Amino acid sequence: MPHLAVLALFSLSPGLAAANGNLPEPFYHRLSGALQWRVAAQGETLASLSSHFGVAATSIARLNGLKAGARLQGGEVIAIDNLHIVPAQPGFDLVLNLPQKMLFFFPPHGAVQGYPVALGKPDWPTFNGRFRVLYKESHPAWDVPQSIQEEMRREGKTVKTKVPPGPDNPLGEYWIQLSVPGYGIHGTIAPTSIYRFASHGCIRLHNDDIAALFPQVADGMPGISIYQPVLLAETDDGDIYLEVHPDIYHQGIDPARRARRLIEAAGLEDRVDWTAVRAQLRHPCGTAVLINREEPEENQEETS
């Protein structure tokens, strides 16, 4: 089962959903993840929980009143909020949002699946744009790219040209080759690298996540890699969510300006709590945050 199985799923009213195509910026309607509780296993850390659930370690610490470097005790109950806005892109079965560090799979039947991923370092970024699945391979060998061989040489490491299948293979047990040359989706032998910008451009998943995704993906399946550090969504219940991430690849995106454009384009200026919006922009937690403006008490009494 995926680490970030969909635990909550909401949708827009038909009118607002239809308006999506007319907005100058993306406007979404689904959420994945939820506020949940985890009994910490012996040796588990904030970093391992971060990579496992797709939420920043600092956010987990803050939610639980812990210091950033706190040690967890086995059996300790930890609250985790990994609510994310799902950036649905019509016509694509796989959607990778780079700043969000999340890969979403839209199966023909059933709920959308969200997976935290490791992506390319800022000086070795993951590609942006459309792709297709070319083929899949179990127990792959790793043909080490020349660029990575050069990096090994510079760092004084033993230069490898090929790594056979097995426990030392950085690709793990599954490889999904994409149509963008040199890029694929695969497992890892470095699980704490997940939900970080730590790869040479490829898309790493936890081993049980790639094991869950692998049989569902078919050759020729269309996907897209997008770059949206600011996301907005509204649910059927009228709840409005904002999710903000750093501009990790330095694309010159101003989060405050982008957030205002999204809110104004959706006609939600009078319904959001701008204090909550500014707080999220100052200290983004990387998950979907409720930004509704509270109704005056007299209005709440009238509608109760």
Automatic annotation (TrEMBL):
Superkingdom of this protein's organism: Bacteria
Protein name from the UniProt record: L,D-transpeptidase family protein
Lineage, opening ranks: Bacteria, Pseudomonadati, Pseudomonadota, Acidithiobacillia, Acidithiobacillales
